[in-house]
């Protein structure tokens, strides 16, 4: 199973001006650093909570089609762009959209109707290309924007090498903002 980002977001959830206002920074000497912290914060939140904050396209390869619904690994799901079977030579044969059903939204799912033929490949035989995330920064959830700003502020203020007691961990503030995005595990 592998997950690959095909098209990254066209913008970040917070502009440089928003971040600088939050940090109370008036100069431009550290603009690149602030933006790198913002990208890192977004990446960390997306990875931890299985999110796509701003619209992005992904390719997910599974070894075989599981029985039942397939929960896609990034949300909110906007669309499944294609489902394909990958042959040994790497060529992808599209599956007819009439043979699967898609549920978009917070917990996007895909259900394949009937048996999927074996593609002759043991690893990465089922390929799902999908889009997930808010359409633009204005539509990104405000609690995620606030969490990103808090993480950026933390890294901006704490740049030195961390001792064991200074390693960043998710604070209660961040958990209260992002807890609704945590998927329950059974």
Descriptive tags:
Hypothetical protein yqbg; 5-stranded antiparallel beta sheet; 3-stranded antiparallel beta sheet; elongated
Report on the structure:
- With 186 residues, the chain is α+β, with helices and mostly antiparallel strands.
- The protein has two domains: 11-53 and 137-181, Phage gp6-like head-tail connector protein (Hypothetical protein yqbg); 56-132, no CATH class.
- 27% of the residues lie in helices and 23% in strands.
- The protein has four helices and eight strands; from the N terminus they run βααβββββββαα.
- The protein has helices spanning 16-23, 31-49, 142-157, 172-178; strands at residues 2-7, 56-62, 70-71, 77-86, 92-94, 100-103, 109-112, 126-132.
- It has a five-stranded antiparallel beta sheet, with no helix packed on it.
- β4 (77-86) and β5 form a beta hairpin.
- α2 crosses α3 and α3 (142-157) packs antiparallel against α4.
- It is elongated and about 60 Å long.
- The relative contact order is 0.21.
- The mean pLDDT is 88.
